[in-house]
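EI: anyone free to look at a 183-residue chain?
SC: sure, send it
EI:
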Amino acid sequence: MSGTFIPLAVSRSVPLRPISPDLERVWRTIGGVAERGGMDHPGDAAPSGVPERTTSPDEIRVLLVDDNLSTLARVSTALAPGCAIVGAMRDGPSALAAARDLSPDVIVLDISMPGMNGFELARRLRQLGSTAALVFLTVHDEEEFIMAARDVGALGYVEKPRLAIDLLHAVREARAGRSFFAA
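SC: here you go
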């Protein structure tokens, strides 16, 4: 993530617009500014190019990784009470850079993403020294996926249909070093 901070990694071929009027507020939160190539207020950037983020000591700093924009918006809304979304990335390589630059407490990641899947991303994060707790948010409910998540060091696993019910609890548990597998 050299240069300007872009909180939402994007493909230039995908139009960046909120998919519904209800998502407008969340869209601004997770980084619709990526379409313009950077931040709303460049003066907010630290010398590194990453904006200054002020979070209370009680807030959990969360990095989101999912290739689906509507999922990123839903997750951002679900985690709003008590969490600070420090970045929302749409692919593995961008997530690696964001984890290094943003030092999140917890990374919420999807399994099925193009290019680098969530398991490979988790392995690479650990190889690069990330200590962030990992929580998978996925459509997969098969036992082999749950075991693979445990094998890569995840502390949480939530199926997407249970996002609104279980994700915030899973993130809080992961931050505290405890497991939460809702599958």
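EI: The first strand starts at residue 60 and ends at 65.
SC: 👍
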